[in-house]
Amino acid sequence: MHAKIFLSEDEMPDKWYNILPDLPKELPPPIDPATREPIKPEALERIFAKELIKQEVSQDRWIKIPEEVREIYSLWRPTPLFRARRLEKMLRTPARIYYKFESISPAGSHKPNTAVAQAYYNLKEGIERLTTETGAGQWGSALAFAGAMLGIDVTVYMVKCSYEQKPFRRVLMQLWNADVVASPSNRTKFGSEVLSKDPDNPGSLGIAISEAIEDAVTHENTKYTLGSVLNHVLIHQTIIGLETKKQFEAVDDYPDLIVGCIGGGSSFSGLFWPFYYDKVSGKAPKDVEFLATESTAAPSVSKGIYMYDHGDTARLTPLLKMHTLGHEFVPPPIHAGGLRYHGMAPTLCLLANEGIVKVKAYNQLEVFDAAAMFANSEGHLPAPEPTHAIKAVIDEAIRCKETKEEKTILFLLCGHGHFDMKAYQDYIEGKLLPYEYPEEEVKKAQERLKELYPWIGEL
Amino acid sequence: MSDKVEEVLRALNAFGVSGLEDFERWKTKRKIGFIVNPIAGMGGSVGLKGTDGKVYKLALKLNAKPVAPIKALNFLNRLKAVKGAIELLTYPREMGENEAKQANLDFKVLGSIDEETTAEDTKRAAKDMLEAGVELIVFVGGDGTARDICEVIGDSLPVLGVPAGVKMHSSVFAVNARAAAEVVIEFVRRALPLELREVMDVDEEAFRENRLSAKLYGFMKVPVKSDLVQSTKVATTEFDNQIEIARYVAELMEPDVVYVIGPGTTTKAIADYMGFEKTLLGVDVVLNGKTIVKDANEKQILSSIKGRKAKVIVTPIGGQGFIFGRGNQQISAEVLKILGKENIIVVSTRKKLAQTGFLRVDVNEEVDSALKGEIEVIVGYGQRVLVEVR
Known about the structure:
The complex is a heterodimer.
Chain A: E1 4-5, E2 15-17, H1 50-57, E3 62-64, H2 67-73, E4 81-83, H3 85-91, E5 96-101, H4 112-124, E6 129-134, H5 138-150, E7 153-159, H6 160-165, H7 167-175, E8 179-183, H8 189-197, H9 205-217, E9 222-224, H10 231-237, H11 239-250, E10 257-261, H12 266-280, E11 289-295, H13 300-303, E12 305-310, E13 319-324, H14 346-353, E14 357-362, H15 364-377, H16 387-403, E15 408-413, H17 421-428, H18 439-452
Parallel strand pairs in A: 5-15, 6-7, 6-9, 7-8, 10-11, 10-15, 11-14
Antiparallel strand pairs in A: 1-4, 2-3, 4-5, 12-13
Chain B: H1 2-13, H2 20-25, E1 30-36, H3 55-61, H4 68-78, E2 86-90, H5 97-102, E3 107-109, H6 119-131, E4 136-141, H7 143-153, E5 159-163, H8 177-189, E6 194-202, H9 204-208, E7 214-223, H10 242-252, E8 258-261, H11 265-274, E9 284-287, E10 290-293, H12 298-305, E11 310-314, E12 322-324, H13 333-339, E13 344-347, H14 350-356, E14 360-361, H15 365-371, E15 373-380, E16 383-389
């Protein structure tokens, strides 16, 4: 009756898995609305390491994890797979609940899995400094950690209001020698421009991204990094699912249902891709279902429509086939900031559209109820994002109690909530609102899109 | 440099990463339409239910003071925080130009107007601004102004109201000028959620029959920052505990005290229970169980309470929580200063109170801050609760 299933460091996978060769359909290409021609990834060469761009479009199923990266991974990897026996008991469910525990990384989440890899490839190509943006600091601290481990300089543009109101992740980044800049800043031309127009601007993720990119393109030996959405990021996260598969082998079990939360889609993809590979290659001992969870405040995949979406209000940017609520949709503020990201991995959109990945949305009140239940049975405090997955798991386990199904359920606890105490405080004080998004508005936005691009249906 | 960053952002966008929108947002000055209805709100302090059409002349005769210019300037002064980021597109003189000049913001004047402004000017201004490519129209006025703009704009462009009218049943208004400025600043800084909100106005026919019935005229798209934009005003039709409240208030009413009673169905229920006359939409003055002034204006209220012990009985507006400054402007700052907080009796059905959970006032800064804090509200027979006034 073990609570944790460990792997030894030698059992840590030495290859990442890439889903591109195994997709049921080819990914629809990003389209330039001016020429209607597909956009090429070379456009990204200015800001990313060559190896990462190669991975972005690679059709290789397996990609070797460099020894140097595995060595740093070994500081916390392999991560344990927990059997949530106390939660099962609390729910009196016959279901077996497992969770893969990424909270124990030094930065407290799954993000270092790709931060370390990205820092490594850049270093190998002679890059001396990396830039990035961060909101509350989850991704920024992961990259700062990677920079400290590999000896590469890191500049993080942190959204100013978080920089001021949530100083602890900032301090953590600074401790790892990152140069943390409150954005908008006078470091960049763009930031100065914003400040000249609006001196008290509290910053936004988009402004921070623009500053980090400008910093990278205007300095020698400097590249930019991103923490989600892109395919190479998702590939690096597959170490999560690959380890989990080995851990299930060790206890002779296999999941019937795999649950995760999606913001940009990287943590959940990292968990389920290797099991998806089992499924399509006929290696899965049983049929496995994939369930992605998102917030009702930004239900882009569960409520959005899979179509070509223009990228901005100026309507000139390339088109990408993705789930969209329309660009007039702006999610209300919620504590699970990572799920508000206006952007989603194209592979996940495709798999959701094919019905291979199911998607459910939950409001922030019900997910914090689930988080409290989890903290009071398993003890661990989840970050606000994975509480959505926990909610889905609890619902399913209760259903199993009624149907007496001995289902095996796996979910990803992708990070701890120790820096999110304000969210928990609001929850305890009854200040959280259960935001829902009106479907009518989505439909209207779609119709407007169709008016703008009558040829959308032809593609 | 800027081109290179934009190129990269475009390419990233093609791979599912956003960021371009924020970049574009700061590249050029943002055009915001600004329309002032200079006569909005004038009827309120002299007991008129609006300042539409002929009523304006009557309001002038009764020595009504313009309200809109003050609210307009108050709004623009607070927009200075983002002065460098915006350009106002406005209409001549008292329709916005004057205040834009006074606030020292960048502006451009469109169109032309005659000596006396009418609803047609508001409509033409909205149309000109739409054609000039503004991103948002801000108007200073009331339900009538909202209706005029809605007729031209519909839901094709975001619109926000700065409340300055007598009737404000529409849910397109910010809570006050300060909140309107905060919404616009947020709109400039980042995209705000847009909601389709009702444009309502009092149904003229029902109004003449003394029935409160706000008619729906259309919808406009309103930028919403939670709790700064008021939701639809709900006419209280339920009689649930109005009778209990009336019974209790009747017991509390003392002889030789002047009672200034505000509009609404809950206060009307008190009159019905006690058997004195009361208008549904007006403010009435009652002494010793008799109505001494029906549908009183500010001047009449002031002279009735002068040198006597007086109290005011009001009920909040459904869905908004306003106890003063909306629909009862006759109970002016001066009236409230004479009465003092201790002579205010607030009554509300539990259902109506639950819609907001708090109360609001929008009279002037002095009165608003004096009333802030907690106030007792009668919600049933012998039942009082403490409610926060914001």
